[in-house]
From TrEMBL:
Residues 10-61 form the DUF397 domain. It comes from Peterkaempfera bronchialis. It comes from the Bacteria. This is DUF397 domain-containing protein. It holds the Pfam family DUF397. InterPro entries: DUF397.
Length: 70
């Protein structure tokens, strides 16, 4: 997989993130076939890049409670 340059990417904080600037993730929507994810507390740190299908499966499994409560 080619790693895209994400320096000019628009990042969106998860709607499930609390307002306390605690455990938050951001995603970069609208990139064809991939979903970059990063820690909102470290915006210049690394991003994990998932295929769109893998990220959709993760979101579906999380919503179904397959990972329990964290």
């Amino acid at each position: 997989m080619n790693v895209p340059d994400l320096t000019l990417t628009r990042w969106v904080k998860s709607s499930y993130s609390g307002g306390n600037e605690g455990e938050c993730i951001e995603v970069a929507p609208g990139l064809p076939g991939i979903v970059p994810v990063r820690d909102s507390k470290d915006p210049h740190g690394p991003a994990l890049i998932f295929t769109a299908d893998a990220f959709a499966a993760f979101v579906t499994a999380t919503a179904a409670g397959e990972f329990g409560t964290v």
